[in-house]
Amino acid sequence: MNSSDSPHKSGFVAVVGKPNVGKSTLVNAYVGAKIAIVSDKPQTTRRVIRGILTRPDAQVIFVDTPGIHKPLHKLGSVMVAAATHAVNEVDVVVFLVDGSRMPNEEDARIGRLLDERCRVPVRLALNKMDLLKPQNVQAVTEAYWALAKHADWMRLSATRGENLDKLLDQILARLPEGPELYPADQVTDQNLQAIAAELIREQVLARTRQEVPHAVAVAIEQWEDRRADLTHISATIYVERDSQKAILIGAGGAMLKEIGQHARAEIEPWVGHQVYLELWIKVWDKWRERENSLRELGLGTE
Ligand SMILES: Nc1nc2c(ncn2[C@@H]2O[C@H](COP(=O)(O)OP(=O)(O)OP(=O)(O)O)[C@@H](O)[C@H]2O)c(=O)[nH]1
Ligand SMILES: [Mg+2]
Question: Residue 199 belongs to a domain with what CATH number?
Answer without folding.
Answer: 3.30.300.20
